[in-house]
Design brief:
Elements: H1 3-11, E1 15-21, H2 27-39, E2 45-48, H3 59-70, H4 75-88, E3 94-97, H5 100-106, H6 108-118, E4 122-124, H7 134-143, E5 146-151, H8 157-164, E6 169-173, H9 186-199, E7 204-207, H10 213-222, E8 226-229, H11 231-240, H12 247-262
Length: 265
C-alpha cells in the first residue's frame, strides 16, 4: 500500500493496529491471523520480523519471535510472508518493524526496495536512533516507504519535533521499558499523548501496554490516530495454539479478541 494511501486511511479516522510476528505460530496461520484481524475491524497492521534479540520487546513478543524462528521463518521467508499478507489484506496499511542488524546485513537500499515491493507502507527500526537514521530515511524515501520514529515517555518536545521531521507518523511508547500489557498509570499516558500530539504535525501512534477497548478509546480521545496492540494478542496465540489441530480455535479466539479491541463485537 502506498504512503499516500496510508495518509488517506489515517485521515479517515483512528486505526486499531494489531501487531503480528511473521511466521507466528506458523507461516500459514500468520497470514490467516492477519486476514482475521482485518475482517474483525483492524484498519492497519504492524508486522514484525522475528529476531533473536528483540531489545524493545517484552516476554510475550519475544516468545512469538521464538516460535516463528523455531518454525523456520528466516528473513527471506519473512519477505515472502509479508507479500502474502499484503495480497490477503488489500488496502490495509502495513507498518513494518525490524531490528537494525537485519537491515544492515542486507543493505538499506536492497532491504527497503524488497519490503516496499512486498507491500509495506512504513518502516520502523527502533534501534537505529534519529542521529544515525539519515541513510535509512533516504533509502526508504527512494523506495516509496514512509519513515517512522520511536519516541518514549521522557522524550522532550524539541526531540519530538526532530523525530517527526519527514516521518509518516511518530510511534509513542506509552510506558518506559519494553512491550507488555500494563494496567496502571494510564492517565499519565493519555496526558503524554495529548502533549505529543500538540508538539508534532504528523499523526501519533500509541503502543506498548494497550490491551483493552477502554484504553484505545482513551488514546484516540487524547489525540492518537493509531493504537497498536501486540503483547495482548501474542498471548492469545500462545494460549490457544499448541498443535495444528488448534488452528480453528486459534482463529476464532483471535477474531474475538480483535473484535473486542475495535468495538465491533
Amino acid at each position: 500500500m502506498s504512503l499516500a494511501a496510508l495518509r488517506t486511511s489515517i485521515e479517515e479516522g483512528p486505526a486499531v493496529s494489531p501487531f503480528l510476528v511473521l511466521g507466528d505460530p506458523t507461516p500459514d496461520l500468520c497470514v490467516e491471523l492477519a486476514r482475521t484481524a482485518v475482517s474483525a475491524g483492524a484498519r492497519m497492521l504492524e508486522i514484525g520480523f522475528p529476531y533473536s534479540d528483540p531489545v524493545a520487546d517484552g516476554p510475550a513478543v519475544q516468545a512469538a519471535a521464538g516460535r516463528a524462528l523455531a518454525g523456520g521463518t528466516s528473513t527471506r521467508r519473512g519477505f515472502e510472508l509479508l507479500g502474502r499478507i499484503a495480497e490477503s489484506c488489500p488496502g490495509i496499511p502495513l507498518n513494518l518493524l525490524v531490528y537494525g542488524n537485519l537491515v544492515h546485513r542486507i543493505g538499506y537500499e536492497r532491504f527497503t526496495d524488497t519490503v516496499s515491493q512486498a507491500g509495506a507502507s512504513t518502516l520502523l527500526v527502533p534501534d537505529i536512533p534519529v542521529e544515525e537514521a539519515a541513510p535509512l530515511r533516504r533509502a526508504g524515501r527512494r523506495a516509496g516507504l514512509g519513515h517512522v520514529e520511536l519516541a518514549g515517555p521522557l522524550t522532550p518536545g524539541p526531540r519530538l519535533r526532530r523525530l517527526a521531521e519527514d516521518s509518516a507518523f511518530v510511534y509513542l511508547a506509552g510506558f518506559q521499558g519494553v512491550t507488555g500489557v500494563r494496567r496502571g498509570g494510564f492517565s499519565a499516558v493519555l496526558r503524554h499523548v495529548t502533549e505529543v500530539a500538540g508538539n508534532v504535525d504528523v499523526p501519533v501512534c500509541l503502543g506498548f501496554g494497550l490491551s483493552g477497548r477502554d484504553q484505545i478509546v482513551g488514546a484516540f480521545g487524547a489525540g492518537a490516530r493509531i493504537a497498536v496492540v501486540g503483547s495482548h494478542l501474542a498471548r492469545v496465540v500462545e494460549r490457544l495454539y499448541r498443535s495444528p489441530g488448534d488452528a480453528a480455535d486459534l482463529l476464532a479466539g483471535y477474531r474475538s479478541a480483535v473484535l473486542g479491541l475495535t468495538g465491533n463485537s
